[in-house]
Amino acid sequence: MPIYLDNNHLTRPDEQVVEAMKPFLGANFHDPLAPYTQANLSRRAYGDAMAKLYAGIHADKKDDVVITSGDTESNTWLFNSLYIHKILTGKGGAIIISERAPASIAAACAYLEKQGAKVFRLGVNGDGVIDPQDLLDYITPRTALVSIEMVDEESGAIQPIEEIAEICAQYEVPFHTDATQAIGKIPVDVQRAPITYMTFSAHTFHGPTGVGALYIRKGTELEPMLMGSETQMGGRRAGVLNLAGIVGMGKAMELAVDALEYDVEDMREVRDALEEKVRAIPDVQIITPWSLRVPNTLTFAVQGVPAAALLLELNRSAIAATSAILYPQGDWEHTPLIDAIGADPALRHTVITLALSRMNTEEEIDEIAKALEESIALLRDESPAYPETTTEEQA
Of 62, 79, 158, 342, which has the maximum CB count within 10 A? Predict the structure, then answer.
């Protein structure tokens, strides 16, 4: 049976999510904002889904949760808006992000730099984590925005969002976090820290693709993303609502939050059992300590084995995994993981990520481990980058 281990990129929609969406892909197609009786069911479903989203992230009823097509749109909207209405008007100065920022944020900032904006990038330590105190070297009361991802997609490293948000609050600087890699893996609560904006996408917590949201704290100004009717998303994003997608995201959020405690523990047990077997393979380096990363992610470098070759061998065993080397971040400033943590540059092209979900099982562990062991042994036999140790050298 195929085994899917690319869940930080895209998760399989939960069957309950699919069932919740079905009625709104057919006869119940009506715009929930329409005034006629035929739209009543759509209106109730929309209200129920939005309530689940608010509850899932602990948003206040006066906050805004604006539906978008996903994290890329949300991030692009936020950065472009703040550039136009803060930096260009002289109300704000530089933007501060992580050197490991998600691709949409890294690309948006690279574009804004070409327009004259100043962007500072915070580095991570050897564990892949930002030191909040490093922010003090760059932040001023005129900083336009600080944006740090909640979880690193590749390493699974959990960033100290609460401490960073508190520093931003002290300087009265808006703080944004991309929580796309966090929901369904760790608790996400916008009330635990002074978060101004937060991005998330349904496709990483077993919801549908093409739908996400931008959380905006009450009292915060942000220019509309799409102009049009003032009745749609409070005038912040016009256009007919993607009702089926919103319903699906609401159901996925409900499932992710309700199942967080026991599902995450089960997922962690599977990941840890797999990690134990990976650690037993010679010359394999695990990236980010167990205690500092989300419970579904296992990222490691394999000395002497190119990631592309290893993934190809795993694919022959019907195991789907990934490596950032196969999804290049472009020409913008995004520091490769190995460089960011200060590891041996020779390992840069040897890193792969196994990202599990609650749908992976204990029965898959031995099959994954066997495929890894056999594939690594095969590729090392053919690799001049991994010389074989002689008996004399071992003695």
Answer: 79
Of 65, 49, 72, the closest CA to residue 249 belongs to 49
Look over the chain and give the mean of its residue pLDDT values, rounded to a whole number. 90
Return the amino acid letter for 41. L
pTM above threshold 0.85:
yes
User: Are residues 252 and 176 in contact, defined by beta-carbon separation less than 8 angstroms?
Assistant: no
- List Cβ neighbours of 22 (8 Å cut-off, separation of 6 or more): none
> Which helix or strand (DSSP H or E) is residue 271 part of?
helix 260-279
* Domains present along the chain, CATH in parentheses: 3-9+260-385 (3.90.1150.10), 15-258 (3.40.640.10)
Q: Give dist(CA 28, CA 244) in Å, integer.
A: 10
Residue 68 and residue 213 in contact, taking contact as beta carbons nearer than 8 Å: yes
**Radius of gyration for the alpha carbons in the chain, expressed in angstroms and rounded:** 22
CA distance 326 to 308: 7
User: Is the pLDDT higher at 390 or at 56?
Assistant: 56
Q: Measure the CA dihedral 181/254/162/288, to 10°.
A: -30
Q: Which two tokens stand for residue 142?
A: 């005129």
pLDDT digit string, tens, across residues 300-335: 999 999 999 999 999 999 999 999 877 655 544 567
pLDDT, tens digit, for every residue of 328-349? 555 445 678 999 999 999 998 9
Residue 293: name the closest of 245, 243, 353 by CA.
353
Q: What are phi and psi of 71, to 5 degrees?
A: -65, -35
Among 389, 309, 291, smallest CA distance to 351 is for: 309
Residue with tokens 């930080």: 8
The DSSP symbol for 233 reads G
Tens-place pLDDT, residues 213-234: 999 999 888 877 755 455 555 5
Apex CA 305: angle with CA 304 and CA 307, to 5°? Answer: 140
Region of 318 on the Ramachandran plot (φ > 0 left; ψ -120 to 50 alpha; else beta)? left
Percentage of the chain exceeding pLDDT 90: 76
Which residues have CB under 8 Å from 75's CB, separation 6+? 102, 104, 105, 108, 178, 199
Residue type, 129: V
